[in-house]
Amino acid sequence: MATNNGDNEQPLKVVGKPFRKVDARAKCTGQTLFADDITLPRMLFAKLLRSHVPHALIKSIDTSKAIALPGVVAVITGRDLPIPYGILPVSQDEHALCIDKVRFIGDPVAAIAALDEDTAFEAMDLIEVEYEPLESISTIEDALSIEQPRIHDYGSGGNIHKKVSLEFGDMEEGFAEADLIREDVFFYEGNTHLPMEQHAALAHFDADGKLTLWSATQTPHYVHRALAKTLEIPASHIRVIATPNGGGFGGKSDPFNHEIVVAKLAMITGRPVKVTLTREEVFYCHRGRHPVLMWVKTGVKRDGAITAMHFRSLLDGGAYGSYGVASTFYTGALQTVTYNIPRYKFEGVRVFTNKPPCGPKRGHGTPQPRFALEVQIDKIAEELGLDPVEIRRRHLVPPDSVTANYLRVGSNGLGECIDKVVEASDWKNKFQKLPYGRGIGLACGSYLCGAGLPIYWNDMPHSGVQLRLDRQGGVCVMCGSIDIGQGSDSILAYIVAEVLGIDPFDIRVLTADTDLTPVDLGSYSSRVTLMTGNAALQAAERARELLTIAVAEKLDVPIENITFAERRAFDVENPDVGVSFAEAVQLAEAKFGTIGTVGSYTPPRSPGKFKGAGVGPSPAYSYSAAVVEADVDPETGIITVERVWIAHDIGRSINPALVMGQVEGSVYMGLGEALMEEMTYRGNRNVVHKFPSLLEYKSPTTLEMCDVKTFLVEDPDPNGPFGAKEVGQGPLLPIPPAVVNAVYDAVGVRIDEVPASPDKVLKAIREKAQGKEGRYGPKSVPEVEWPAPLKVLTPAEGGDGRELPREAAHMKD
Amino acid sequence: MMRLPKFEYRVPREISEAVKMMADAGPDGMFVAGGTDLYPNMKRRQQTPKTVISVTRLQEMRAIRGDAETGIVIGPSISLTDICNHPVINRDYPVVAEAARLISTPLLRNMGTIGGNLLLDTRCNYYDQNYEWRKGINFCMKKDGDICWVAPSSPKCWAVQSADLVPVMVALGARVKLVSTLGERMVTAEGLYNDDGINYLHKRPDELLTEIHLPPRNGMKAVYKKLRRRGAFDFPVLGVAATLDRAEDGTVRDARLILGGVAPAPIRVKEAEGILVGHKLDQERMAAAAEACYLKARPLDNTDFLMNWRKQMARPFVLRALEELR
Ligand SMILES: Cc1cc2nc3c(=O)[nH]c(=O)nc-3n(C[C@H](O)[C@H](O)[C@H](O)COP(=O)(O)OP(=O)(O)OC[C@H]3O[C@@H](n4cnc5c(N)ncnc54)[C@H](O)[C@@H]3O)c2cc1C
Ligand code: SF4
């Protein structure tokens, strides 16, 4: 079914207009029911007792005193939920409650259901757990060197979770061609999502023994699968309803222990059971940004053209697998989609440490390498005497091309993005021309519009939409996607309204209910607008086709003349001849029976066929460029970001107001990561989280937020619905490197590490004043025994996307 | 964080009634004003009073009397928002309003009082944690435990004086009135604070703070500089309050330099004051005074930011304070 909207079609009525969100009024008036707002009769409250030691064997758990406390209804431990789970099939390493071992402070060991929360709290103090402490592992260096004890007994040996090594093209030749080769080392500290809404879940078994779970989750489909597995009940007897998320940012994308626990407690007690995590517990759930150490070696020609890049990343994964294998690949995947990199080698390693598990946070695995890449390009430009704008602008990846690591790039509006921010910021008159203490920096970025492959291997669509039209003219869109505040419910309404010529507020949107809506994989990897949008478009076009046939017959005009607008179906040549939308549905219902259509979306196959090619491909890539202007106080090292100009290649905005909101939100989050946010742990006290609180986990307030000037570049992508690409994550990427590039322009010091806190900046400034390098950042990365790389010939070398057989690879050496 | 535990809440209308209630409640009683410090502490089980006596309805403690000529008396139950907006304070003692504006957020200033600010509990990031976290590290000396995690060999607690108005009041030479069933007494602000994170006040728990006296202003100029991570919410991790009184020809007659946020009590840097008094303010003297403050500031690793950097910030912050007064 064609998705075109050009040629002789109507101008767009809904798409591209700043309509309000379909859920805006409910949110603004406090009527939206979040998971914690839902109560059921006879409901119990659950609390999880969490480990206060980072790494230990569980010798015994005595729950007898807790169960004896009046008001306590049930207490469970790991023995009650013996089956492991995890978001990735390759990392089924979590238990809802630890069985014989705890792996970080915050790992749950027992759960209580009580008549009220205070009683459950009190009961927690009555459970006695005897631990046998094990040596704890808190850094990447420790994890690489300490073989025993192992945090997990799977992975690549010792405390190494995963190693990867991929090589695209002849690296030796690439570096030999270079006029300049730079090696740099960077560190990106871990940070967390900090959603305003704490995770909450409510479980209820109905009279027929069927389970319903309401939960603040970004991935109801994966939670559904984890429940079926761990509770050992048929998936068809489980209904997961994802409640509107009060912020997710990736932090609610894993199936969580508290979700499984309340389901189990509901099963045991026969009563509904709710849990709402405390803020501290949200810090322990984490799944946030991995701390990543990076080493980059890049060869360039005199004009800045890259001849080869060798990138190494070392990820501190925390205590569990989570999305970590994917995160590891992501730290090496998207380097190639902005500037032409003809030969590319990536080595990555993820280690286990006794800290809350890391996972996907806005930009999943890509802000760290993007930081390294964009800062290094700045350094290269300086060494070559090139303007940072020119070095980027000249070597952009062309549209409709395939990169060395087999990512197919469709539309690419990065050049225009750069032009916009360079012009608006008056770059030419500012770069290297502002007074000491003030500087300007540029950086770019790119992100996926949905992962090309699902999390578990299958051939089914990634997104499904069902549309029901009734004779009153009502339209209901049903889709498994979940609105986490980004506006995905609204996007469904806008697209269907556009195709059917009705008002988006005529439409009822029903989402994220595994009983009532077809599967959508969830709100992650910036996939929702593109994938559910395409599915909705298909369903709506199918419905319009049915209506068209019936209306054309009734009006006796040719089918191709029928068009839909302003709640009518009419003859384009003679607009007075037509019927109302409701009548059109009635005609179709009379002719075809009840009107319901479906649409679904499966991403195109990627040209990469090698092992590891699953991470990185996407139907389209969004692009952004940002210029940051900052003040640096040379006496204190304090950075004040004065202004950000950012341009984002959105393909086409379905709703520009929502797009701008996402851009500004990304800038805000990027500034937080660049300047202050960090997940820190106390070395002297057992790798305990330094301060799990909203007051002391420093994240910018509105007062730290600077003026943002946003430009939207619209270069429609053939794979996006109406040409739309993503915006939820991409615009974060250029911010941290643009900030430190601006710091360099301001005071001449390189901060090769985020957050660029004032103590680091001041140290670098002082060192520079003493005639030293004037740099803050890691000096080296630890030695790793890298596996022999899997070698793939690049498209330019005539490769077919498959790895070379081992022997051939060796012969080439 | 846990919810508030159960406690008895009492609302006296007169000072005499309030101190009587406190005497009756004994060691399990505590006064509360805005509660922005006490209630979070109770939720974290750092403070566990059984009887909480509110001072917000004591009309006698809600007025401001006097002016720059006579000095003023401030009622401690006045909210920080009212302090920020009060015409006499803004006209005659603007530094008090300026410092109050830097305290936490507008919402907390609506609730929090000036009296509560002066008596704020000391802070430490091993202590201001929820119950389970503290239990996890086996507690610390300030509450429920017997070691100081910041300075494990130290016999004393180093929790930090963290109220913005405290260094300002000490610099201004304020005095406070304390009342109990045993009688009343006046204490200087400087004498109110004790350099111990646990017993941080020279005040008995049963004593009610009823008045804050600021001396006549004369020619004195004052300024307060605050170091914190963000423009809102954050407690000071260094506060510099400075006052100067100068003769016609610019010679410094009197100076006070007080550092907050770097020790359990505000630190008066007499060395720095000595460098300034009797001289005109030039760059060299100001730098020397800043250096003296830097030497006196000994922050430990129990607040936001690296302690080393916090110490270094004493120099530019004192210098900037003095430059503003020049
Ligand atoms: C998120 C947050 C940020 C904050 N940021 C800052 C900041 O930046 N700067 C700052 O200075 N403070 C800050 N505070 C602390 C606090 O809000 C203020 O210090 C406030 O002024 C305290 O006043 P209160 O009336 O609420 O005190 P309360 O909590 O009512 O009382 C504080 C203490 O004083 C005692 N007390 C109160 N009144 C009397 C009285 N009349 N006589 C005897 N004892 C009395 C109480 O028993 C208690 O021990 C912050 C607090 C929070 C929660
Ligand atoms: S300074 Fe030491 S004793 Fe005092 S609160 Fe902090 S850790 Fe506890």
Low-pLDDT parts of chain B are: none
Q: Which strand order spans the largest sheet of chain B, edge to edge or round the barrel?
A: 4-5-8-6-7
Shape category of chain A: globular
Strand content of chain B: 15-25%
End-to-end C-alpha gap of chain A:
49 Å
Distance between the termini of chain B: 47 Å
| Helical content of chain A (DSSP H or I, runs of 4+) | 25-40%
Number of distinct beta strands of chain A: 34
Tell me the radius of gyration of chain B: 20 Å
Short description:
Helices cover 27% and strands 24% of the residues of chain A.
SSE layout:
The complex is a heterodimer of chains A (813) and B (326).
Chain A lengths: L23 H5 L15 E7 L5 E7 L1 H5 L3 E6 L23 E2 L5 E7 L2 H8 L3 E6 L6 H6 L14 E9 L2 H7 L2 E9 L11 E6 L5 E5 L4 H12 L6 E5 L14 H13 L3 E4 L2 H7 L6 E9 L5 E11 L7 H10 L10 E8 L15 H18 L3 H6 L7 E2 L5 E2 L4 H11 L2 H4 L7 E11 L14 E7 L5 E5 L8 H13 L6 E5 L16 H28 L6 E4 L2 E4 L2 E7 H12 L2 E7 L19 E12 L6 E11 L6 H20 L5 E2 L5 E2 L17 E7 L21 H13 L2 E2 L1 E2 L3 H12 L5 E2 L13 E3 L13 H7 L1
Parallel strand pairs in A: 1-12, 7-34, 8-32, 10-11, 14-15, 20-21, 27-30, 31-33
Antiparallel strand pairs in A: 1-5, 2-4, 2-6, 3-5, 7-15, 8-13, 9-10, 9-12, 13-14, 16-17, 18-26, 19-20, 19-25, 22-23, 23-24, 26-27, 28-29
Helix pairs in contact in A: 6-7, 10-18, 14-15, 15-16, 17-18
Chain B lengths: L7 E3 L4 H11 L3 E4 L5 H6 L7 E4 L9 E4 L3 E4 L5 H6 L1 H6 L1 H8 L4 H6 L2 H5 L12 H6 L28 H8 L2 E6 L2 E6 H4 L15 E7 L6 E7 L10 E9 L5 E9 L6 E2 L1 H7 L6 H14 L10 H6 L1 H12 L1
Parallel strand pairs in B: 1-3, 2-3
Antiparallel strand pairs in B: 4-5, 5-8, 6-7, 6-8, 9-10, 10-11, 11-12
Helix pairs in contact in B: 11-12, 12-14
Bound molecules: flavin-adenine dinucleotide and iron/sulfur cluster (SF4).
